[in-house]
Amino acid sequence: MLLCVSEGCLLKTYLSQCPNYYDMDSIIVDKLTKKFGNFTAVNNISFSVRKGEIFAFLGPNGAGKTTTIKILTTLLSPTSGNVKLNGYSPITEEDKVRHSFGIVFQDPSLDDELTAYENMEFHAVLYSIPKSVRKKRIEELLRFVELWDRKGSQVKTFSGGMKRRLEVARGLLHHPDILFLDEPTLGLDAQTRSHMWDYVLKLAKRKKMTVFLTTHYLEEAERVAERIAIIDHGKIVQTGSSRELRERNSSKTLEEAYLKITGHKIREESADTNEKLRRRFGGRR
Amino acid sequence: MMGVIYIMWLRQLKRYWRSRSRMIGTLGQPILFLIALGFGFDAIFQQAGQGSYMQFLAPGVVAMSILFTSMFNGIEVIWDRQFGFLKETLVAPVSRFRIVIGRTLGGATVAFLQGILVLVISMFLGFSLSNFMGMPIALLFMLLIALLFTALGTAIASLMKDMNAFPLVMNFMIMPLFFLSGALFPVGNLPSFMGAIVRINPLSYGVDGLRGALSSSVFGLPLDFAVMVSCFVIVGAIGSYLFSRIEI
Fold first, then answer.
1. Residue B151, CA atoms < 13 Å, CB-side half-sphere
2. Can you give the pTM of this predicted structure?
3. A140 to chain B nearest CA, in Å?
4. How far apart are the C-alpha atoms of B75 and A37, rounded to whole Å?
5. Distance between CA atoms of A120 and A116, rounded to whole angstroms?
6. 3-class DSSP state for residue B129?
């Protein structure tokens, strides 16, 4: 399994030996750096994710996870380095990249005033899913996440778990090759979490979909991820399967290994503007 | 191609239609203005030989409600940013230009409808629509006001990270635009500095065009039209550019 931790990595050798590498790697990140003023959020990281792989990207708050996802999903441009998704560059081939992935964001991104069905329909139009298959696909996915009987309800009447399920369904609507899940199970109860993973894993297997996941629930990463990368202070510090990480750090659980790697100190991430606003305005919209 | 613009437009309309409390809430202020000022100043206005103040004021209040609604609709971009929906549109494989066009058309349509509601209400309060022939032109100016200020709201919102700057926009942008536009007073005989301010305010031309279509214009309808259209084109272009450069 290929993965390189910084410069002087195996990536180039690997690429030169393997002309069809686009068939094998869904995501290639090469020497990626992102700076915000003086602050380096992501510091020269390289890694790749194979097609159909379930890949977990772990790290403490403020380690650079969300910044990396934002770059991969065309929301931010990198300061330097190369990125490829499905063989396309998020900088120069935005639209092709955008067709390739689906995403469930860390924060909700539904329109509360619209119904579940309308949110799906909106997405279908944005991704130019032909009218002829639109209805069928929306129904299929809403049934899949068990929201079909609530299709006509405004999203603001939904619980947190229902919203998440709807977002998963929406992220899958255009049949992406890569699914990004940025802390998808944050604040969900164990039942909903396990349900959600059942859906996602079933679908990933069936469609050979790559899943790129960040989470703070380490037992979740341990259970679903085939490979794990741990990022801290903008650098990837270790990678491997859950077993490899445990063995390498002589730990019984992934959590123990994780704490050995990233330390016990609590990280303070400055509350971002989202949070501030939500506190001030409550649920007002 | 048209699908994206249409769905963005439709979304704004659905949101408007579903938040009826907001619709009614935003009617409160124009009604208050029409009653308090319309009836309050009517006698003085008549004594000054200017005719009925309600007749003069109503187009100004219609323009006011369009100004407020359209600026708020444009600024809703920030709401979408805060509540996450903006991300859904920004990662989609469509040009942001089309998204911003759809948004602007949607926001402007909503503001336009709100303006029509206020116009109808003002008729119940004593405004008489004597010049039916001018109605299409009046509606055109209402639409132009709605488009221009939705685009302006969008442009401002694209630069703002959160709602903290909102009172600033309200007090230093929306209020001055409204009070210094001739919506409330005739602009013919103003002190020169005030006349100059009124003349660089695009809303003055919108109000004048709207009022001109229904009774009489100061600047002349062709100038009103030309100013409104060119302002919309310029602000719309700036707004689309700023929107397309939003990073989250």
1. 23
2. 0.84
3. 21
4. 27
5. 6
6. coil
Task: Assess contact for A264 and A270: CB atoms under 8 A.
Answer: no
pLDDT exceeds cutoff 70 at A239: yes
Q: For the residues of A209-229, what is the DSSP string, one character each?
A: -EEEEE-S-HHHHHHH-SEEE
**Residue in chain B nearest A111 by alpha carbon:** B85
Closest CA to B147 of B109, B198, B176: B109
Strand partners, A212: A55, A180
Partners of A55 in beta bridges: A212, A227
Q: What is the pLDDT of residues B182-199, one digit of tens each?
A: 999 999 889 999 999 999
Q: Check if the beta carbon of residue A100 is closer than 8 Å to that of residue A158.
A: no
Q: A94: which 2 tokens? A: 């935005």
> What's the structural domain count of chain B?
1
Determine the average pLDDT of the residues in A180-202: 85
Q: What is the mean pLDDT of residues B205-233?
A: 95
DSSP 8-state class, residue A115:
B
Q: Which residue segment(s) compose the domain that B14 sits in?
A: 2-244
Give the distance from residue A70's alpha carbon to the nearest chain B alpha carbon, in angstroms: 8
CB pair distance less than 8 Å for B247 and A114: no
Give the separation between CA B246 and CA B90, rounded to whole angstroms: 9
Domain ranges of chain A: 11-281
The H or E element spanning position B236 is helix B221-244
Banded model confidence at residue A268, pLDDT cuts 50, 70, 90: low
Q: Do A122 and B11 touch (CB under 8 A)?
A: yes
What residues are paired with A103 via a beta bridge?
A180
Sheet containing A235-240: order of strands: A101-104, A178-182, A210-214, A54-58, A227-232, A235-240
Beta bridge partners of A35: A40
CATH of domain A11-281: 3.40.50.300
Q: Say whether residue A107 is in contact with chain B using an 8 A CB cutoff.
A: yes
Residue B90: its chain A contacts at CB < 8 A?
A: 75
Say if the ipTM goes beyond 0.90: no
Chain B contact for A48, CB < 8 A?
Answer: no
End-to-end CA distance of chain A: 47
H or E segment and range at residue A236: strand A235-240
Segment (H or E) for A56: strand A54-58
Task: State the amino acid at position A191 in one-letter form.
Answer: Q
Provide the H-helix boundaries in chain A. 11-17, 21-24, 65-72, 94-100, 116-126, 131-144, 160-172, 190-207, 218-224, 242-248, 254-262, 273-281
Which residue has tokens 């971002």? A272
Q: Which of B7, B90, B91 sits opposite A122 (nearest CB)?
A: B7
- When pLDDT is averaged across residues B226-234 and rounded to a whole number, the result is 97
